[in-house]
Description:
Strand 1 (63-68) and strand 2 (71-76) form a beta hairpin. Helix 8 (139-155) packs antiparallel against helix 9 (160-177), helix 8 crosses helix 20 (495-507) and helix 14 packs parallel to helix 19 (437-454). The protein is 51% helix and 6% strand. 45% of the residues are buried. The chain is α+β, with helices and mostly antiparallel strands. Residues 1-23 form the signal peptide.
Amino acid sequence: MAILIPLALGLLGVFIWLRKVGTREPGLPPGPPTVPLLGNLHIFPTEFAHYKFTEWARQYGGFYSLKMGPGTAIVLTDAAAVKELMDRRSGSTVDRPAMHFVLAIILLVLLMPMTAENWRTLRRTAHAILTPQASARHLPIQQAEATQLLHDILLRPQSFYTHIRRYSNSVILSVLYGKRAPRYETPETTAFFKAQHEWELVLEPGATPPVDLIPILKYVPERWAKWKRDCTKTRKLQRDLYFGLLDETKERILRGEENGSYMEEILTRQQEFGMDREITGYLGGVLIEGGSDTTSSYLQSLILAMIAYPDSQKKAHEEIDRVVGEHRMPTLDDLEHMPYIRAMILETHRFRPVAPLMVPHATLAPEEYKGYVIPEGATIFVNAWGIFHDPALYDDPESFSPGRYLLTENGTKPGVDGSDLRPNFAFGVGRRICPGIHLAQNSININTMNLVWAFNFTTDTDAGGSPIELDTFAYQKGILTGPKPFRAKITPRTAEKAEIIEREFLEAADTFSKFEFGLSPEDKEFVVQSRAH
């Protein structure tokens, strides 16, 4: 009998503790009602989480909390809160949440905890090589690849969606590994987009079980856990690509065939940077991912918006014709004379951000903000979508309207303080801002001008001649998102511009040749045929 009393008290204690699990602790910011044990897990969205997060922000404010079982998540849908917590206090908010499924795939700098020595090494290395000056050295191949993009669209406009993907992937392969992709079907390009699609599905908030909150899930056999099979599949796809490219680069260095790529520099300075083969391979991986999918998604969104909002396209055409004219292609120097196209670039980021929830952060220490407590280890979601679509900040935020950036510096309503919104907000916050921002911005600027200068983008028609309606919300699932494939009618604006594109493409052959190592027989044949006419 004596043993029953402590046992009963113990069970009572466990019962009381379990009832508190999932409950919003005193001091946390408000949020949706919780239930015992789960907190808000039962209502956490499993896809396109930014829509639900934004809906909750309109109800609970731009700084609210979610309970993820015993864990806490903070959602920021307020630009001032983002500036204060993610930029000014980045020393405390630089971490990443524990993600068992991520470590099961790959040690990726983008998602590593700040406390990891590997993260500090990779961050230091990335910022050492991705400077504005270093990025400027790679403009020739970016401009040449942008010319091929125009040429590909000119010849096969119906395949514009994959032409854009080829462009972005070929640029980053050339810049990182000194090896380009002449076709979308180039083995490295198809391997990348296959691996990236799997990776983004795994990363999407709500797409995998809360393993870090319920550790016993780690021991579920793979045959009963689809998420584990997805992790295994993605890890193999990524490693085969990243380390295959790294080994090719090392072999080219040994043959004395360097062409100035970033990975050549890293391989020759490995000892200085303190990097082994494993970390070097993964650095290449994160830079490929940061430079391929995001740029292509951005350009696809730009085209989608120009078709859906023809008046904006018309104004861009008028401006570029006035500045550049008929007889040459635009250059980066022209952009400073094109306020409307600069505004269009910013508006595309706002209208359809590539990373609507960015990548989650986590706190290294407790923080206090506006009288509320953010506990140590809390996950922080930066809801870029909700900020960019806030009707308190923007007039008619659901519409694509570049002119808003001509009225005010940050596109906000006249009279509304938009100083908390940085021009490069779409590239991340705090110490986790995209290290390849300069390279990416050059690609965006070059291609936006080129596409506006060269083509008319209009709604396509079906077999009966009726316009095919565009859905500007038809986007891919994933932590990074872009439009689903869509149809468009694309025509050269003048015959002279078509001739200039042909000529510039042929003249780019010398630049391309410096990066055409190890091409497959099919790629070699494509290169010969594309330059024969």
